[in-house]
Amino acid sequence: MPHDRDLTGIRVHHDSKLCCLPNAIVARVDDKCSAFELRCAECNSRICSLPKEVVSFLRGIVRVFGTPSASIYLPRAVIRKRTEMANYTREDVSPSRWFKAADVTQPRNLTIKEVERIELKDPTGESKDKLVVRFENEKKSLVLNGVNYDAIADLYGDGTEGWSGKEIQLFQTSTRMGNKSVPCVRVRVASGLA
Asked: Which of 79, 136, 160, 192 has a beta carbon 3.0–4.6 Å from 115's, enabling a disulfide?
């Protein structure tokens, strides 16, 4: 099909990092077939084959509008093969408002926006007042326990009013809970500030 060649070189932007970047380029698998794949716009590594539905969608864009000069946005769900089993987690189904150990497998520097007292339920269902640290440019917050409060207080003083605008680092470690070691979030001085 002559219009197949028009798809080669179309730039695609993805909702998450595909390889080196969230940007990719459409490439023909080989000269003998009409199958296409995505290649990393940075290193040209093969990312995945494009499903027939995506190829058809791109052909329609080229037919109606011509070869686009800007990147076309393709969400992950569109690119994923139907035969590929999705590996969803609880976070995909019901995102938490609070940082947990799994969120900081790599240390993260964050700037404190504010600290506020809110009412939360403990595991028994009883309401408790807790301090929560909110961060700039971040949806999740950190519920403060005594250890993390002390770590921030050691850095920036005991009064929370002086913490706004200060940078900390969240990292994953483990703690003892009963007779088990469990992962947890801890606070320390932000990297580059020590």
From this structure: 160
Asked if 101 and 129 sit in the same domain, the reply is yes
Residue 37 domain boundaries = 2-79
CA distance 138 to 118: 18
Has residue 194 been placed in a domain? Answer: no
Co-location of 63 and 26 in the same domain: yes
| pLDDT digit string, tens, across residues 134-171 | 999 999 999 999 999 999 999 999 999 999 999 999 99
Considering the domain architecture, whether residues 53 and 95 belong to the same structural domain is answered as no
The two tokens of residue 147 are: 């250890």
Regions of the chain with pLDDT less than 50: 1-4, 81-85
Q: Verify that 180 and 104 share a domain, yes or no.
A: yes
59, 34 Cβ separation under 8 angstroms: no
**Residue 93 to residue 1: CA distance in whole angstroms:** 42
Whether residue 134 sits in one domain with residue 100? yes
Rounded to an integer, what is the distance from CA 16 to the centroid of its chain?
Answer: 7
Contacts with 185 (C-beta within 8 Å, 6 or more apart), sequence order: 99, 100, 101, 103, 104, 142, 148, 170, 171, 172
E-state strands within the chain? 11-14, 23-28, 36-40, 46-49, 72-74, 108-121, 127-135, 142-143, 167-177, 180-189
